[in-house]
Amino acid sequence: xxxxxxxxxxxxxxxxxxxxxxxxxxxxxxxxxxxxxxxxxxxxxxxxxxxxxxxxxxxxxxxxxxxxxxxxxxxxxxxxxxxxxxxxxxxxxxxxxxxxxxxxxxxxxxxxxxxxxxxxxxxxxxxxxxxxxxxxxxxxxxxxxxxxxxxxxxxxxxxxxxxxxxxxxxxxxxxxxxxxxxxxxxxxxxxxxxxxxxxxxxxxxxxxxxxxxxxxxxxxxxxxxxxxxxxxxxxxxxxxxxxxxxxxxxxxxxxxxxxxxxxxxxxxxxxxxxxx
Amino acid sequence: xxxxxxxxxxxxxxxxxxxxxxxxxxxxxxxxxxxxxxxxxxxxxxxxxxxxxxxxxxxxxxxxxxxxxxxxxxxxxxxxxxxxxxxxxxxxxxxxxxxxxxxxxxxxxxxxxxxxxxxxxxxxxxxxxxxxxxxxxxxxxxxxxxxxxxxxxxxxxxxxxxxxxxxxxxxxxxxxxxxxxxxxxxxxxxxxxxxxxxxxxxxxxxxxxxxxxxxxxxxxxxxxxxxxxxxxxxxxxxxxxxxxxxxxxxxxxxxxxxxxxxxxxxxxxxxxxxxx
Lengths: 276, 276
Hints:
alpha/beta, elongated, Rossmann fold, 8-stranded mixed β-sheet, 49% helix, disordered C terminus, 12 helices
C-alpha cells in the first residue's frame, strides 16, 4: 500500500488556510499534487506557483485522471464545489477518491453530489498562513463511504500524521464544536486580555508565560484539576472588584460574570479523571 | 547588594499554591526561609517539613528577626494577617520588608496595618501544587512604599526571575483581570471542550495539539491576527448547526453565541500591531 499511495496524484480544490498547509505536507509525503483549483486564479496560483503546481479557476478544467481530490473550501461552498467536481469527473474512466476537510459538513454532501467513492479528511488544527504546522502532530479524523475508501483515506491520513482517528459525521461535528471552544474561544479570551492591557499600554507579551503554562497544565491535569483563579476559590471580593473595574466594558463585564458562574458550576459537576 | 540579599532570612505566611512554589525558589536563590506560618499546623508543616523549615500556626509565634516577610494568603485574609503580623513585629528592633503576593489587593493594605517598610511581589502565573514552575520565566510585578523598599523588592524579584516589572496597584489589578481572561477563563474553555467530548467518550487529549498551537500562535501573531473559526469567517451555517447541537446545554449554547458575537466585534475593532 505504502508505495502505491505515495505515487498517487492529488488535486486540491481550494487555496485557503487548510489547502496552504496540506499542499506542502502532501508533497513531502511523496504525493504528486497535480493541480490546485480556486475560485480565483490569483489565489489558486498564489498557492500553486511557488510549488510548481498547475493552477486553475475553472472547475470544468480540473484534471480528471487524478487519484484523490481534496476539497478544502468554506463549508457553504462545499455543496456547489462537490456537485461541479463530480460532474466534471463523470465522463472520466477513473474512480478517484473524493474528500473534503470540513469539520461540520456531513459525509452525505458527497452522496448528494452523486459521488461514488468518497470520504472526509478532517485536520483538527488552527491553520494560519503565517505559521508552519508540523502536520505529523495534527489529529486527523477520517470517515468514508465504504470499507475500501475508508482504508484509502486512513492510508492518506497516516502518511501525513501520526495521529489518525475514525469519526462519523456526528462525532466529527462534536469535535469541531469542542475545537471552537478550545481554540477559537480561547483565542478570543487572549484577545480580551490584549484589549484590556492595550488600554493601559501594557505589552501583551507579559501574559505569554501564563498562557503557555495554562496550555501545558492540561497535558497532565484535567481542566477541572487545572482551574485556578477567583471564581474557583470563591473569592467574591476579588470578583466584585474586577466587575467594578470592567464597568466601562459591559461586554467583558458580562462575560466575566458568566465565565465565573460557569467555572463554579463546572467545578462542582465535572469528572476529575484525566480523560486519555 | 547581591551577597547581602542572598543571606537574608525570609518568613512565608501562607502555605497555599503561591507559597508552595515560592519556598523552593527562594531556597535555590540562596535565601534562608526561617519559618512558614499557616492558619493550620497541618498545612504549614506540609510545606515546611520536607524543606527542613520550622512551621507554626500562631502569628504571635512568628520569628521577629527575619529580613523579609511574604504574605501569600487569600485576598480576604490579607487585612487580618497583615495587621496581626505588624503587631507581632512591633516590639522587635528590626525594620523588615513586608510583602504580599496578591494581584488585586492594593499596597495600602500594609499602610492600614501600620507597616513602615512594605511592598508587593506579584507573580503573574497559574500555580498548581502538582506542577513545577520555572520561576525564572514568571513575570513578577513589584511595587513598594519607598524608593529604598522598591529597590529591595526588585532585588528579591530579580533573584527569582528574569522578568521583573514595576506596576502600581491600579495596573496590577488590571494585569490580574487580564490574567483571569487569559488563564482562568481560557482553562474554563478547555473544561467546556472536555465536557463536550466526555459526553461522547472522546479523549480530551485529541485537542492538545490544537490547544498548544493556539497558545503558540500568539507569540508571533496578535490574538486578532491569530483568530480562526466560524465566527471570524462569518460562517453562519456552521454556527447555526453548532448552536442547534448545543441546545441540550443552554449554558454552553449561550456562551457560544456570546463568544461568536465578541469575536466579530473584536475583529472589527481591535488594533493589529503586535503589542510587544
